[in-house]
Amino acid sequence: MSDTNQLIRYSIITEKNPREIVLLRGNGCKWRRCRFCDYHLDFNLNSQLNYQLNAQVLKKVTGQFQQLEVINSGSFSDLDTDTMKLIKDICVQKHIKYLYFECHWMDRHHILPLKEKLKTSGISLQIKGGVETFDKEYRETVFCKGIDTDRPQELAKYYDQVCLLFGITGQTQNSMENDLKTGLKYFNRVCVNLMTENSTEIKPDKQVLSIFMDTIYPKYSENPKVEILLNNTDFGVGGKNE
Q: How far, rounded to the nearest angstrom, does the alpha carbon of residue 195 sit from its chain's CA centroid?
């Protein structure tokens, strides 16, 4: 995620759950221990500079689907207060009814207050959490996610949607299918990310990826509640402007 100023930060998603999506910049993920992630490199400690960048991105939002997804490295609580106010104002002005944010487990106490605050403006806040897998031992020893519960019911108290990460050594057809079934049982939607080569020590396992594509992808590719990102830029943001 080097040269983050050159990243594509606005896109439109037209399939399954049509919405606009923006990649904003905050002061950075506070966890920063996930062994597969270099997304946290997209940050700046200068809140004024972040707001200037974010405001330019948010100008592109039209409200055409009445749904907006906002992502940033870390949690929504890592965005500056001016950016958060602008997001709310745009949702009201553009008649956006559903706002999607991401939140790390360590920041879950911020979720309910924001949901209540936005509800008074007619905005339904939906939270997406990067769980990666419901196998706690694998999640914490291999991924180092920092989630201290093995109960999906507990996760569902905070998250409306979950992200899963597939394509890594040690995962099997059964483990991936179990994760998907659990995700669909307890959450509104599931987003599957396939591991993409990056600067971290965790690398994609071609055999596991092949198992996914041959046996699982055909079963879930048309499921309206499952979004599958074959590449981590498939939503249209995060890639570099040419």
A: 14
